[in-house]
């Protein structure tokens, strides 16, 4: 995590619980259009979502923690390609809860369930 993130952002990291690590990595790699790298530490496997100098997070095996009915709604960046990202959701085992739509001056979002059943929002400042 960069110093910029720890100083300027309130949210600095996220863990997304998954039942099937490889399936979830394939989903996020395609939908977000970024690399998702599998790692292992002390016998524990997890996948880090590419984040360069931005806020980062990972996929962690914890299927028993998945809930799609409410709670925190995590917005994931799909800048400039929200329509493409939404098109990929169902083909990769996810489900569209709310299709892409304008959210006033804040851009566009779609709410989906990922391949593991987690509720997330896909966000872009432009419709594309």
Describe it for me?
This protein is an alpha/beta fold and 128 residues long. It has one domain: 2,3-Dihydroxybiphenyl 1,2-Dioxygenase, domain 1. 22% of the residues lie in helices and 38% in strands. The strands form two sheets. Strands 1-4-3-2 form a four-stranded mixed β-sheet, covered by helices on one side. Strands 5-8-7-6 form a four-stranded mixed β-sheet, covered by helices on one side. Strand 6 (95-102) and strand 7 (108-113) form a beta hairpin. Helix 2 runs antiparallel to helix 3. The model has no long low-confidence stretch (mean pLDDT 91).
Mean pLDDT: 91
Strand content: 35-45%
**Approximate shape:** globular
How are the strands of the biggest sheet laid out side by side?
A: 1-4-3-2
| CATH hierarchy class name | Alpha Beta
What attributes does this structure have?
128 residues; alpha/beta; 2,3-Dihydroxybiphenyl 1,2-Dioxygenase, domain 1; 4-stranded mixed sheet; 3 helices; 38% strand; globular
Spell out the blueprint of helices and strands.
Blueprint: H1 3-8, E1 13-18, H2 21-32, E2 36-41, E3 44-49, E4 56-61, E5 74-77, H3 82-91, E6 95-102, E7 108-113, E8 119-124
Helix pairs in contact: 2-3
Short description:
With 128 residues, the chain is an alpha/beta fold. The protein contains three helices and eight strands; from the N terminus they run αβαββββαβββ. The strands form two sheets. A four-stranded mixed sheet has the order 1-4-3-2, with helices on one face.
